[in-house]
Design goal:
The protein has 720 residues and is α/β, with parallel strands linked by helices. Among the domains are: 20-325, Alkaline Phosphatase, subunit A (3-Layer(aba) Sandwich); 410-427 and 434-505, Tetratricopeptide repeat domain (Serine Threonine Protein Phosphatase 5, Tetratricopeptide repeat, Alpha Horseshoe); 628-720, Serine Threonine Protein Phosphatase 5, Tetratricopeptide repeat (Alpha Horseshoe). It is 51% helix and 9% strand. The protein is built from 33 helices and 15 strands.
Length: 720
């Protein structure tokens, strides 16, 4: 036989072997394999090198893609964090699981809901989650079925739940011990990163490395993913694990006028990265151009583990897409954010093959292959496809339930406080406008937020007040109005603005706590208590902390300590309740107990490798000052101010201590820095009170006269 036939025969054998192995990989199951689901919030697929972008380096994600299968056209069902994760973990559309917004809709898990953590837990898996944003806290319903759920983020004084987040490195640090504990048994881990969600403030070295802060945040997220994957390798888990990396939604970045997400349903908001790594890197390096969706993840995991498929699942196993066995599908998406937050119409959409239909008052149809940027509306040219997609969409849509459904007792409390119902879903009269026709309003709202970011609250109000006059149902603008009045030391108009939000969207726990804080600032402690109590069921930590402050101001230190301990009991090891408890113990004169509480808080921080939260160094400084350790107290107060320059109590206490220690020039310099860095009425009020406490009535009056001239409407200055 000649050499040429031998070579051909050898090649034929290799092809046959490769074909058999490929088929085996597609059919293989991996019972008991660890499952790690990595969700990177707000990550556009087209901003990753694995999807062709050259503006950022993501070595960890690139390596994972090389070891796995990359799905080139994967889509979310809603460009909002909580509803998207509800679909991701149930395999159901938002119309089926009922979570239609980040607020006001909790996940209700009846026995027929195929919730992946619960299914795997029942199959003998250890189940854990670690999330980086308050919006995904366990109390939303996501915590069911998990043995471990790390969501230790307190709302504090944040005006929006979207502001309550933490760096992914911190979330990972609080996950590693649990990973160690389950390394020898089957486990499921949901690991969530909030980078690159706004605000785009990447840490170093990424802030200096990238001109675009969104890219910097992507690089920061990749670094955390790299640490997690390295840890899995050290534990001997990486090779035998099923790893899914994806995002819950994309980001507008101004492509169609929306900088962030939630309002429009164009491709940049819906298309997400999706990478699937199988044990032993089977199918490594493969890519699939078939459309995939988040509800495919649950059936994929169950398929790979050899677990039975629940009846309600509508998605397909991602493995079937590679085999070409999945039928042509219509991929559904929706956003009710415009309706619930802005007073505009909701939008729904359908992706079918190459076409993307967006339904609203002014419908659109795009060819995603010929026009991926969605600039040319082909609705008039595709009438037959339009008719078919409209009919399909009509069969998927469900009526929107009102947000914030409450029980009879809570409804009675709300009525007693002057709140009627739980928010309205219908406009006062006439149809709602199409969001894309109103998207220019977002630039005005964004300009107001930029003013707020630099402390120019009066200037922001000049933009915001016309907005809410033109559209009284714009809840997000009312929220911003409330923030501005709060920062300007005008709690009463701030309360009225937040009550407008409650009338539109319903009373939610975070809103109740903000209003409670404002009533406390205005001296109405009974209203403050009543509003804080509204949040007890869903946010017991922050509710009890607010109730502790109300009791402290009422002079009831026993009740204040009791609420601080109840906050601690609601989340053992949380540092914020320990700070409040130590503060109350100091006021009660029990310095030894306060010292023990502060030491416990510091131990918790060391254990988690976390930074001190607001107030800890202030309380530590107060304790040191009372123990006669003045120099150490000064250092503690200055540490608090450096980390949290808006803590007026720290400035005031430091100034008082410096004056008492015979350092009057430093005391005045501290007060001057306080009002320079916090150029708003509350800071001036704190400085006036401190000067009076030091017996300097002349300077106190001069400063008060100046502040009243600048802020004539500030309630916080009126009573001084």
């Amino acid at each position: 036989m000649s050499r040429r036939p031998l070579r051909l025969a050898a090649l034929l054998v290799l092809v046959l072997v490769a074909g058999c192995r490929r088929g085996g990989d597609l059919d293989a199951t991996f019972p008991g394999a660890p499952v790690i689901l990595i969700s990177i919030d707000t990550l556009r697929s087209d901003r990753l090198p694995a999807y062709g972008y050259g503006g950022v380096a993501t070595p960890a994600i690139d390596a994972l893609a090389a070891d796995g299968v990359l799905y080139e056209r994967a889509y979310t069902h809603v460009p909002l964090t909580l509803p998207a994760h509800a679909s991701l973990l149930t395999g159901l559309l938002p119309t089926e699981h009922g979570v239609r917004d980040n607020q006001g809709y909790d996940l209700e898990l009846g026995d027929d809901v195929p919730y992946l953590p619960r299914l795997l837990h029942d199959a003998g898996y250890a189940t854990g989650a670690a999330v980086s944003a308050f919006v995904l806290r366990a109390a939303t319903g996501l915590g069911a079925g998990f043995d471990f759920y790390e969501d230790s983020l307190e709302q504090g004084d944040a005006e929006s739940i979207g502001e309550v987040q933490r760096p992914g490195q911190v979330t990972l640090d609080r996950t590693l011990d649990w990973l160690e504990s389950v390394r020898d048994r089957p486990f499921f881990l949901l690991f969530h990163l909030y980078e690159p969600h706004t605000p785009y403030h990447p840490p170093e070295p990424f802030a200096s490395r990238y001109d675009d802060p969104y890219d910097g945040e992507i690089a920061a997220a990749d670094a955390v993913v790299g640490r997690l994957l390295d840890h899995l390798r050290r534990l001997g888990l990486y090779r035998r694990s099923i790893i899914v990396l994806l995002s819950d939604h994309g980001e507008g970045l101004g492509d169609h006028g929306e900088r962030e997400h939630g309002i429009l349903l164009y491709r940049e908001a819906l298309q997400v990265p999706l990478i699937l790594k199988l044990p032993e890197a089977r199918l490594a390096g493969r890519r699939s151009a078939h459309p995939a969706q988040l509800i495919d993840v649950v059936p994929t995991v169950l398929d790979l583990l050899g677990q039975p498929r629940p009846d309600r699942l509508a998605g397909s196993s991602l493995r079937a897409l590679l085999a070409g066995e999945a039928p042509e599908r219509a991929l559904y998406a929706e956003t009710y954010y415009p309706r619930l937050h802005m007073g505009w119409s909701e939008l729904t959409s359908l992706i079918e093959g190459r076409l993307h239909y967006i339904a609203g008052p002014d419908p659109e149809l795009y060819d995603l292959v010929a026009d991926p940027a969605e600039r040319r509306n082909v609705l008039a040219e595709e009438r037959r496809a339009l008719s078919r997609m409209r009919a399909t969409l009509a069969g998927l849509q469900r009526e929107l339930a009102a947000p914030s459904a409450v029980d009879a007792e809570t409804a009675a409390r709300l009525a007693a406080l002057g709140y009627a119902g739980g928010g309205s879903l219908t406009p006062a009269s006439g149809p709602l406008p199409d969001p894309k026709a109103e998207v220019h309003t977002l630039e005005r709202l964004g300009k107001a937020h930029r003013h707020m970011g630099r402390g120019a609250y009066a200037e922001a109000l000049q933009i915001l007040r016309p907005l809410v006059e033109q559209n009284p149902r714009m809840a997000d603008a009312w929220m911003a109005v409330g923030v501005c009045f709060k920062r300007l030391g005008r709690p009463r108009p701030a309360i009225e603005a937040y009550r407008q939000v409650a009338a539109i969207r319903g009373m939610r726990p975070n809103l109740a706590l903000i209003i409670a804080e404002l009533y406390r600032q205005s001296g109405d402690l009974e209203q403050a208590r009543s509003h804080a109590e509204l949040a007890l069921a869903e946010n017991p930590v922050d509710a009890h902390l607010q109730l502790s402050e109300v009791a402290r101001e009422a002079g009831d230190l026993g009740a204040a300590e009791r609420h601080a301990r109840q906050a601690l009991a609601a989340r053992d090891g949380a540092v914020a309740p320990l700070v409040q408890l130590a503060r109350i113990q100091i006021l009660r004169g029990d310095l030894e107990a306060a010292r023990q509480t502060v030491d416990r808080a510091l131990a918790e921080l060391r254990r988690d490798g976390a930074e001190p939260p607001p107030g800890l160094d202030f309380v530590r400084g107060d304790l040191l000052a009372r123990e006669g350790r003045a120099d150490e107290a000064v250092a503690a107060f200055r540490a608090e101010i450096e980390r949290f320059p808006k803590n007026l109590d720290a400035h005031a206490r430091l100034a008082f201590l410096l004056a008492v220690e015979g350092r009057p020039d430093e005391a005045l310099q501290t007060l001057r820095a306080m009002v320079e860095h916090n150029d708003q009425p509350p800071a001036y009020a704190a400085a006036v009170k401190t000067l009076r406490g030091l017996g300097d009535e002349r300077q106190a009056q001069a400063l008060l006269d100046y502040a009243r001239q600048r802020f004539p409407d500030a309630e916080v200055l009126a009573g001084l």
